[in-house]
Amino acid sequence: MTSLQAWLTDAAGALNIPIDEIPADLRTGLLDLLPAVRQLGGDTAPALTAYLLGLAVDRGTPPSVAINALRELAAARQQQSDDVDQVAQQPTAQVPGGDTAVPLAREPRADQPGQRSTV
């Protein structure tokens, strides 16, 4: 028995919940989701997210629906984060006479499809 299995068995017992009420696919789905939650929200986010998931299930949301909703949220937040990172990595140059960095202008190349040479 792994330490995770031992912990879950003991925690379920402490809460008077039969361990077999946690389906393997639900456990796997939640465990797969939590690293992304930690990356997006910090170290305490997985615990509080798991609690929110439990509240949703208690209020009637099927566990798989709740996990999928959180998975979609995490993917959308990750995409937003990636987009911000991509903008932040654009090269910048100092504006002559100013102290504000702006993205470098990019001239279209004549060899790109749909572009005409202006020479």
Radius of gyration: 24 Å
The number of helices is 4
Inertia-based shape: elongated
> DSSP strand (E) fraction?
5-15%
Order of helices and strands: HHHHEE
> Which spans have pLDDT < 50 for at least 5 consecutive residues?
none
Q: Averaged pLDDT, please?
A: 81
Biggest sheet layout:
2 strands, antiparallel
| End-to-end C-alpha gap | 73 Å
Which structural class fits the helix and strand makeup? mainly alpha
**How many β-strand stretches?**
2
Which strands sit side by side, in order, in the main sheet? 1-2
- Tell me roughly what share of residues is in helical segments: 55-70%
Question: How would you concisely characterize the structure shown here?
Answer:
By secondary structure, the chain is mainly α. The chain has helices spanning 3-14, 24-41, 45-58, 63-88, and strands at residues 92-94, 101-103.
